[in-house]
Amino acid sequence: MIAALMLLPLAAGILAFIIRNDKARRALLLWTAKGHFLLTALMVYLQAAYGIVFDLHAGFIPALYPRVSGAVWFAYDALGVLFLGITSLLFLGASHYAVTYLAAEKRDPGEDADDGFIFNNAPEAVFTGCLLLFLAAMTAVTASRHMGLLWASVEATTLLSAPLIYFHRHKRSLEATWKYLLICSVGIALALMGNLFLGAAGLKSGAGLDLAGLLSKAGALDKPLLKAAFLFLFVGYGTKMGLSPFHTWLPDAHSEAPAVVSALLSGALLNCAFLGILRVNSVCASAGLAAFTGGILILFGLFSILTAALFMLGQRDYKRLLAYSSIEHMGILALGIGLGGGAVFGAMLGALSHSLAKAGLFFTSGVVLAAEKTKRIADVRGLWRRAPRTAALWLAGFFLITGTPPSGIFLAKFIILREAVALKHYWLAGAYLGLLAILFAGMASVFISMTFGEHEAKPGEKPFAEPSGMLGPAAAFFACVILAGVFIPGWLNDLLAAAARDIGGKL
Amino acid sequence: MHTFAELIIVFVILLDLALAVTGSLSSCIRLVALQGVVAGLLPLLAGSGAPHARAVVFALVIVTLKGAVFPRLLMRARDKSGARRDVEPLISYPASILLCLGAFIASSWLGSRLPLPQAGVAWIVPASLATIFTGFLLITTRSKAITQVLGYLVIENGIYIFGLALFVEQPLMVELAILLDVFVAVFVMGIAIFHISREFDHIDTAELSELNDWRRGEYGK
User: Fold this and answer.
1) Is the pLDDT of residue A212 over 90?
2) Which of A288, A447, A484, B19, by CA, is between 20 and 30 Å from A384?
3) Which of B213, B214, B216 would you mutate first to test chain A, the one with the most A CBs within 10 A?
4) In chain A, what are the domain boundaries?
């Protein structure tokens, strides 16, 4: 089952490089996404209904791995299943979007309206292939039960998504790609160092680097070394996750990549990096270092929200604005995990709702870009006159992402706030609320001025036909986010709670 | 009987210092390759008795990758980009070597403070930390994209030596997966360098500064 989940996108990705026919390749993308989603749904169902957990033993290459018998390399616990579910659902939406998008790009490759130059796109085969391989790597991240393997998979996601950012071949996207590659690779190298510290911490007790061993022998781990390991892993995966002050690559990459890639980066990839932090956090929590790691998570979480608030005011580019909103939400997730207790459940719900809402917003931003040919906020006015359905989704996305009820994000933010107050962190709760208010105001002014206002027709502007294939996934995701806020089905509630238990939060 | 391994450690430190002062791009590539090879051979020489088959296989893979494949890829990237032949440091060479020496002193202090398991080979922890610092120095104070890749590789070498010092033995599959990642990283970065040189007519990363939040140029208005 796990092997099928990983091998399906892997094989399809390799196949996509070979297939010459555009239509066949797009169908392959779509069907792989559907197959992957079905497998994932089956896994979630079995996990939720019968509590069956899948694992894949290392036994298939015993000669290369003689030390431990039956150590598990890939397996799914509730936390892994939750993040796999998010990734797979997003990819399903993204594949539908990408098919329409790629067809449109083929007819009319790019012209950059902001700088007024013409550019080419990367070959579609490379784009589709990397997209599918990217999915395979993210699946491997969610399944990894070995910290070394987790590291290798996270680094693989960086390398496979770099060509995706450089789809539009021009200077700005190239600059973004280079920064992304270098900052993330060096950041992740620090996480490798953290893995070594983690291994050294368990050297005496023979804990190894697989999670089961680490968790069972957590009490015997060397505390100072474990602290060092957490710091390095936090900085390493935190770079990838976009926590401030290691976030510098994120706005560039998100603003220059095609909208579908931004959606996947923001909704799926950041979560995968977050999973790396969660894994080491659970080890530290079982070793009795929860107060230490919690303090660090709260500090950087709050700092990320502050950074997002500062940079969002006066932002000129709406895709960068969305990128800073991602940094804000990653900060909120880190804050929730750091507070522990019931806030962990809130963070899990937040991860789910943020991924869906942000992916929907990025999808919509792609349509806005197609309609207005500019990413400048000041040049988009009166969107509802030119593209009414897009404008409606754009505004709905704004309300959902800022956590207006009945959004799932509202519930998540509220649970975290309640926990902060319950733990008597009054200053923290106050700062959190204040920053959220600033963020709401900053985003409101942008979204409202873009949606309403008088539309000024640009010279040579044709009427814009809104592509349903690109708006559909966004609308579906927004509906899910509202559902998560109004009514969480029993199985989802159980899954979120089980995931929170895996991290070490109590309910 | 670690004398030979200790000699190698000294050699690694000397290579760090050499990297800090070398001006020619191709010598830099060769120095990094040499460092990778030496680090890859270290586990064979440090162990007592005949090495395991696993260690030999792994050392062979490392030596081929770091000694032959990476330098070839980077040399190709250098030739194709038609860049100037020197590394164009942002700070002077004496400053570089002073920083490098300072990093070495700091890492020997840090190495003595860290509560690490007793390493069999003297100086191995300071040497690895100093190598990581040198990598960061290359990334931050050299302006070319290619030297940033070199810095990344030097960091990787340092981390590898650090892993040896800590006796952390990862399963071979994981080690190979890590190496594969590094290989693909260098490969993808090489392609990116080629594209940068074609788009911008240079590979000077200091000029990659169009994207930021407070644009003054045309794009921001």
Assistant:
1) no
2) A484
3) B213
4) 2-503
Whole-number pLDDT of residue B190: 84
B 149-168 residues inside an 8 A Cβ radius of A: 152, 155-156, 159, 162-163, 166-168
How many beta-carbon pairs under 8 angstroms link A with B? 140
C-alpha span between A348 and A329 (Å, rounded)? 12
Task: Say what the pLDDT of residue B215 is.
Answer: 54
- Pairwise CA distance, residues B153 & B142, whole Å: 14
Q: Is the pLDDT of residue A427 over 90?
A: yes
For residue A235, give Cα distances in angstroms to A63, A232, A264: 35, 5, 22
Rounded distance, CA A280 to CA A283, Å?
Answer: 5
A186 contact residues in B (CB cutoff 8 A): 136, 139, 152, 155
Pick the residue with more confidence: A57 or A260?
A260
Using CB atoms and an 8 Å cut-off, which of residues 100-139 of chain B contact chain A? 114-117, 132, 136, 139
Query: Are B103 and B134 spatial neighbours (Cβ–Cβ below 8 Å)?
Result: yes
Q: Which residues of chain A lie closer than 8 angstroms to B110, CB-CB?
A: none
Residue-wise pLDDT tens digits, A315-361: 888 999 999 999 999 999 999 999 988 899 999 999 999 999 999 99
B172 to chain A, minimum CA–CA distance in Å?
6
Test the A interface: residue of B132, B140, B188 with most A CBs within 10 Å: B188
DSSP, residue by residue, chain B: --HHHHHHHHHHHHHHHHHHH--BHHHHHHHHHHHHHHHHHHHHHHSSSSPPHHHHHHHHHHHHIIIIIHHHHHHHHHHHHT--SB--BSS-HHHHHHHHHHHHHHHHHHHHHS-PPPPSSTTHHHHHHHHHHHHHHHHHHB-BHHHHHHHHHHHHHHHHHHHHHTT----HHHHHHHHHHHHHHHHHHHHHHHHHHHHHSS-BGGG-----SS--STTT-
Under-50 pLDDT residues of chain B: 1, 216-221
> How wide is the angle at C-alpha A18 spanned by C-alphas A16 and A19, nearest 5°?
70
DSSP sequence for B27-83: HHHHHHHHHHHHHHHHHHHHSSSSPPHHHHHHHHHHHHIIIIIHHHHHHHHHHHHT-
Under the phi-then-psi rule, with left for phi > 0, alpha for psi from -120 to 50, and beta for the rest, what region is A111?
beta
Q: Which residues of B touch A166 (CB under 8 A)?
A: 192, 195
pLDDT at B49 (0 to 100):
59
Q: Which residue has the tokens 């990217």?
A: A134
Mean pLDDT of A230-250: 93
Q: What is the spatial distance between Cα A198 and Cα A233, in angstroms, rounded to a whole number?
A: 9
The confidence score (pLDDT) of residue B46 equals: 65
Q: What is the pLDDT of residue A106?
A: 79
Is the CB of B173 inside 8 Å of chain A's CB atoms? yes
Give residue A467's pLDDT band: very low, low, confident or very high (50, 70, 90). Answer: confident
